[in-house]
Backbone:
């Protein structure tokens, strides 16, 4: 099912390194490093087109067993699609407070690279962009093909793919429509380019699909049934009552499997199968038609996904709280520990070589380091120094902890 939430993240990128699996109190946790690139385009003061590529690294964490199972098989450089939500946390490392934004992955899909599509070249003359070469008769033919279907149908109902010339003219028609405006500003707009690319790919894919028995309505119904656990025999019977060539059970099952492997479409969750089958049998007995049952099941699955996501987030918050309590207990027990902030305290405490140190924030944004006897905000302590960064204070503690103290 598609991920729906106010706090939703959809990310496509490449694995920057091999996944890291850790053991937690609630099971396994996997960490991924994803590299995503974005190309920004703009027009400079001289009217020249400029572009710049920016690469961003994202930290992805998941507790889902199915995500962990898939991620374990991935290697560096693998292109993946991640669907989840954004979370942030704070911790202390080497005396410095660090804020981390993480993507909690709910779904992970491995993407296969598409082969490049050869398109006609755009040439700019003055303020008008034209396709070259393209005589007037060809433009008229492209206008006709732009509104024509991406395939033709034989009298027996079988789809026949477009020829190469038809595909070229169909793409030319889309490009000619794109450059009709006297203004060239939209030509460099990434949103318009993305929309044009989608239309081109859709035109090419539909006209050359290997699935010849599937028209628009059948395809829409089957896509909506993904993840709803509709019995295959009932789905097959309903699809055969729709216009088009006769389908076999194998046609339906294999097309459904191919749709499930498309990007942003998650595999059916087996945890929802019993409840979905129960709802389907109940609605079928009452005489509800299949499209209405599919809509009801999609609502049910989305509701269950939200419930499970909230439960997972609750477990994650519980794990973070347990980790904080464990660090506090280690500090209060007298054991050596890294910088730890007690609850409802503005100060940070650490212990090295049995000696306790306190780091307090000041109004001038400097950090005050003191040697104290206990983890208390109110103890005066012995002033060691004031530092601009907590990392500097950590270096001082690492040396001072093993020096003789004055008596």
Residues:
């Amino acid at each position: 099912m598609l991920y729906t939430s106010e706090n939703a993240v959809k990310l496509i990128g490449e694995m920057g390194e091999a996944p890291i699996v850790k053991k937690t109190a609630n099971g396994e946790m996997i960490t991924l490093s994803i590299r995503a690139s974005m190309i920004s385009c703009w027009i400079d003061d001289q009217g020249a087109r400029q572009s710049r590529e920016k690469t961003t690294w994202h930290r992805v964490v998941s507790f889902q067993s199915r995500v962990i199972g898939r991620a374990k098989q991935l290697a560096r450089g693998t292109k993946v699609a991640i669907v989840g939500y954004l979370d942030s946390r704070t911790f202390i490392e080497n005396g410095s407070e660090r804020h981390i934004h993480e993507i909690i992955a709910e779904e992970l899909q491995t993407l296969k690279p598409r082969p490049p599509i050869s398109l006609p070249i755009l040439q700019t003359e003055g303020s008008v962009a034209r396709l070259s070469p393209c005589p007037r008769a060809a433009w008229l033919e492209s206008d006709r093909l732009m509104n024509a279907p991406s395939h033709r149908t034989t009298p027996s109902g079988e789809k026949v793919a477009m020829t190469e010339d038809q595909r070229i003219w169909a793409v030319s028609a889309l490009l000619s429509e794109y450059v009709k405006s006297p203004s060239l500003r939209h030509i460099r707009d990434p949103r318009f380019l993305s929309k044009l690319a989608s239309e081109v790919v859709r035109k090419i894919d539909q006209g050359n699909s290997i699935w010849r028995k599937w028209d628009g309505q059948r395809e829409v119904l089957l896509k909506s049934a993904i993840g709803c656990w509709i019995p295959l025999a009932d789905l097959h019977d309903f699809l055969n009552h729709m216009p088009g060539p006769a389908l076999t059970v194998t046609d339906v099952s294999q097309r459904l499997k191919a749709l499930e492997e498309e990007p942003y479409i998650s595999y059916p969750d087996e945890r929802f199968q019993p409840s979905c089958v129960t709802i389907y049998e109940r609605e079928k007995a009452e005489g509800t038609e299949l499209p209405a049952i599919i809509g009801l099941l999609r609502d049910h699955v989305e509701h269950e996904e939200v419930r499970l996501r909230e439960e997972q987030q609750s477990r994650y918050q519980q794990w973070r709280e347990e980790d904080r309590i464990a660090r506090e207990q280690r500090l209060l027990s007298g054991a050596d520990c890294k910088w730890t902030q007690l609850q409802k305290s503005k100060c940070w405490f650490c212990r090295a070589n049995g000696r306790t140190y306190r780091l307090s924030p000041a109004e001038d944004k400097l950090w005050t380091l003191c040697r104290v006897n206990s983890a208390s905000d109110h103890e005066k302590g012995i002033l060691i120094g004031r530092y601009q960064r907590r990392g500097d204070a950590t270096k001082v503690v690492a040396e001072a902890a093993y020096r003789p103290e004055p008596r």
